[in-house]
């Protein structure tokens, strides 16, 4: 029996999306928390913690979007019109945030404008990512292999709650990243922010986990069937364990533990979403097999992916290695 390339590509796309979430999540979190750091010196240091890596982190977003279009064209053609508004707003937020990131270093008169632009762009991008995720989980109406819903179907209480939860989760990643990368009063303030962000993230994950099975019987049945039921028992315990690691690390003034445990929360949440979706790529209408391109196209693209993805991983790891360590006031990439 041959390898099912559609499911190989589903795994690769999921990996790329997860890489984007965990890497770009903490620098979006930096923007979300930016207004809480009022001194210009603190803001400069905060931005310098992500200056060498933030634009490289967004490589994964481009790769994920392009990969979805190439290998799951039907899913792309359905999801895009269903989520035009939040996805367009997300891209505008990312663009404005990127422009603000560069311009704030080169102006004095408009510094406060670009500071707010950086923060608002980050919040909008994070919130719209959560909106899109929530709308996708609730389901997209499909008829005759095309989107059959309305313009505002993406806007629901569940999608808004998902957007808010993702903003809080990214704020936790940003705060623990600052614990890892800064020193002195700035690191102490980051620890102070990270504690309530941890509890709010736990609350958001709890609400999300309890609400999702109520959306449709396919989710409830999925989580109550074997072997997913094992994961449904283990996940709450693992989440609580990671929350304990974060709080313990913050209390003991550990640098890396809170950030790594916060990443673990996102990995668990992402795994839970994957289990809920399988075997669908656009629930509850399109399965992975339904939406995939031809086997010949998948095989051809897989050759390129097996070359490209390791290269991206290598230069990303090298960038993080070169710019490892603490960022102190007055030091930075700019």
Folded structure, characterized:
The chain has 334 residues and is mostly helical. It has helices spanning 5-33, 40-48, 54-57, 59-71, 73-82, 84-103, 111-138, 157-181, 184-215, 217-224, 228-251, 256-277, 288-291, 295-322, and strands spanning 142-143, 146-147, 280-282, 286-287. It has one domain (18-322): Formate dehydrogenase/DMSO reductase fold (Up-down Bundle), CATH 1.20.1630. The protein has 14 helices and four strands. The strands form two sheets. Strands 1-2 form a two-stranded antiparallel ribbon. A two-stranded antiparallel ribbon has the order 3-4. A hairpin with a 2-residue loop joins strand 1 and strand 2. The chain is globular and about 55 Å long. It starts with a helix and ends in a 12-residue tail after the last helix. The model has no long low-confidence stretch (mean pLDDT 88).
For the structure shown, list the relevant keywords.
two-stranded antiparallel sheet; 334 residues; 77% helix; Formate dehydrogenase/DMSO reductase fold; two-stranded antiparallel ribbon; mainly alpha
